[in-house]
């Protein structure tokens, strides 16, 4: 029973693109260029703490609390260095602003294996395509720099939508942009609750990208799991 799909929506981070290096390594290199010595591993731990706390306090880049995503990120980066013991406030703002700009480019992002080929094949098969990502407004530029933007009719970020996955409203907005009912759409992503379960909750089909040996949530039928992106078309067309 071949799925009658017209629209495919895609998560980005760890589905189509991944960071070239752990965050702490990129942060440490930029700090070093400014004469600040900080351990990359310490920065990675501090980043996780700062990011988590900021996300709880100001969800979805502080959009509903009047923050810009740029200010949100600059604050996260500064707090990351503060938690790692850097107290030089004068150095931190320009450092944070430089890192914010650097993460807007292909300097720090790389395309996952099989992603370009799979997106090309999906376009050739005539699927309409869009992005649904809990990302800020830099995403268009990052996708362009990584030569993926042209595959997509729309790029819907949580910052622009005002809702973050797993909130079903971001998927409903994607369906509106794609002009198809949920049963004719499928979402592809690597996160069980934000991607797989959330898309299914609004009536879409969904595929979970999951390398061998990752956590096995029991509710995912094997035909919905993608060991790699190149498995997608076989799953759709079987």
UniProtKB/TrEMBL annotation:
What InterPro entries does this protein's entry cite? Answer: HAD-like_hydrolase_domain, HAD-like_sf, HAD-SF_hydro_IA, HAD-SF_hydro_IA_REG-2-like, HAD-SF_hydro_IA_REG-2-like_cap, HAD_sf
What is the protein's name according to its record?
Haloacid dehalogenase-like hydrolase domain-containing protein 3
Annotated organism of origin: Smithornis capensis
- Annotated gene: Hdhd3
Family per record: Belongs to the HAD-like hydrolase superfamily.
Please give the GO cellular component terms listed in this UniProt entry.
nucleus
One matching Pfam family is: Hydrolase
> Which SUPFAM superfamilies does this UniProt record tie to the protein?
HAD-like (SSF56784)
């Amino acid at each position: 029973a071949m799925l009658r799909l017209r629209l495919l929506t895609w998560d980005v981070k760890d589905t189509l693109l991944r960071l070239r290096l752990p965050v702490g390594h990129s942060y440490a290199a930029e700090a070093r260029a400014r004469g600040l010595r900080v351990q990359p591993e310490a920065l990675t731990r501090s980043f996780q703490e700062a990011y988590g706390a900021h996300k709880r306090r100001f969800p979805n880049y502080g959009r509903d609390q009047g923050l810009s995503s740029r200010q949100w990120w600059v604050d996260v980066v500064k707090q990351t260095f503060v938690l790692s013991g850097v107290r030089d406030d004068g150095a931190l703002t320009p450092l944070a602003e430089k890192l914010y700009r650097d993460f807007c480019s292909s300097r720090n992002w790389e395309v996952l294996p099989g992603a370009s080929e799979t997106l090309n094949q999906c376009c050739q098969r005539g699927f309409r395509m869009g992005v649904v990502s809990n990302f800020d407004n830099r995403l268009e530029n990052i996708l362009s720099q990584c030569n993926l933007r042209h595959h997509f009719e729309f790029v819907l970020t949580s910052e622009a939508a005002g809702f973050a996955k797993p909130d079903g409203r971001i998927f409903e907005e994607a369906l509106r942009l794609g002009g198809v009912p949920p049963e004719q759409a499928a979402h592809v992503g690597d996160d069980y609750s934000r991607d797989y379960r959330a898309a299914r909750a609004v009536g879409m089909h969904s595929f979970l990208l999951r390398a061998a040996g990752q956590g096995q949530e029991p509710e995912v039928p094997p035909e919905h799991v993608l060991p790699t992106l190149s498995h997608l078309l076989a799953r759709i067309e079987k």
